[in-house]
TrEMBL record:
The chain crosses the membrane at residues 145-164, 176-197, 218-239, 251-270, 282-302, 354-372, 384-406, 426-452, 472-492, 498-518, 555-580. It holds the Pfam family Aa_trans. This is N amino acid transport system protein. GO terms for molecular function: L-amino acid transmembrane transporter activity.
Amino acid sequence: MSNLANLALDGGDPRLSKDAEDPALRKEEGVFSTDSDQGITPAIRPQNRVPHDASISFAEYAYYAARTRAEEEEHVGDIAATQSWVQMIFPSKSGMGASNVSGAEKQGAEINANTNLAKAENRNHITAEEWTNASRALRTATKSAIFYLITTDILGPFGLPYAFATTGWGPGITLFTVFAVLAGYSGYLLWTIFMGMDSYEFPIKTYGDMGFRLMGRWTRYLFNILQSIQLILSVGLIIVSNGEALSQAAKFKLCFAICCLVWTLAGFFFGQVRTLQKFGWLANAAVWINVICMIITMGAAAHTAPNYKGAAESAGATLNGGTSITPDSNGVFPGVQHSAGLPPSGGFAGSVNGAMQAVFSYGGAMIFPEFMSEMRYPRDFLKGMWAAQSFIYIIYMFYGLFMYGYQGQYVINPSYLGIGKYNFQTAGNVFAMISALIAAALYGNIGIKVMYNSIFVELFHAPPLSTKAGKLVWVGLIPVYWSIAFVIAAGIPDFSGLTGIVAAVCILQFTYTFPPMLSIAYMMNKNTAGSFDPATGTETKSGKGILKGFFADKWYLNCFNLVYMLGALAMAGLGSYAAIENLIAAFKSGATNSFVCKSPLDG
């Protein structure tokens, strides 16, 4: 998708000089337009800025953001923007997308489709009105779409029983509750920053955009790299988990590497969906498919024995040397075991790595800015987010505790692979595979946009994905992206160790470390910013220093966010250490990767 606000030319338009003083002439040439609200001629038009222009001040971002928010409030009128909580969760046919799209915005969509805005010469003749309409045209998603996009998660619900099995009843419930509350708070912080800095003129498209505007270019690079790593590994993890499910459904008669390859090829097709609005209905289906899969696996767990054949992949294998899943001399496996507190692990690595699986439930914060950037009314994001977080907490918690109650240390990650009876096993696998493919397509969608816009569009002026040429490039990128994801994930033998690394290094940062860090930077910038004059393009400095910015308005929140950020960093360090220890143990034990025919679940 085109990053419209950040595609620009070095400096202002040279034709906007004192040699071209006739406004009528300049307007006729298409290189002049006034501020539609104030009748002010901007000193430098937003579309003539260099990509990620470091000279743009916080005050300028805030000025245009305030105008955009005011305009949005004036045009709140479609049903999708005012729908109730029930209508949000059970939307009508038009409930996923905005309905009040104006003719000017349709023209803006045509500009996106027919013009390569990555090239400076193509932007010189676009007026300010056309520029903002092109930005508006990309904003179509509603809070219903956001609810389903956030809850389109395959690794969260089905990894949670494993988390409870490695942490026990009490610590597991406590950790998951704390994660839920803080994840909601982090979402609120990201929303506050977005609302204060996003505009039609300078839209925030990615998490990296937030970091760049508040903390500089290095932050944007860091965020984009970590986000790309998380997304491509998430796609790879789903390919491998679906490969395990397919091999189980085929009774291990199909080569495991081929099982994984099947889903990679399927991703070539499903990954072609480009916009989040279109993903809304796929996400809707995925959520209810997940619920069906949960019901099937809970019913099967309550009436059948665990999958002892896959015990080597269970939570018990990481605890206390695997003694709780080791059969006796007669081949009889130990009974199902539970722990009120932390289970005996012979070291904390197994329990910490298990706790990291719970973090997956709240990993959506990484793409919250992308979700908000495609919303018609981003103010409604909070409603969709809180509804999704509540759904995740209640439904996932119940499912995780239920599965742990019946399967104990034999829980496998993902949990639908731990059903012993083939018929129930296959039913759960089929639904899980469909839902997982949709989730992987969503992760791949965002991942490709981040990499393509950050590298190809910005550095090489490639056609934005909204153009016809960009759509053709998208078709070719999908197979490459999915193939790389498969190769990376399949080369690592320990599924839970890999998910632990992803959770600690990437997910935990985007959900729990970066939001409070960015919030502190936002409040400091806000408290020290002066007033912006669009006519001159200058900011009147406030004269406040950095220290005053921290201890000015709502200093107590800055203090809390600082403690919150440091605590999240400490947790990330522990999680990384535990996941690495698990991976080292997996390699030492001779565990195989996914480039083999024997499935890891086959004894």
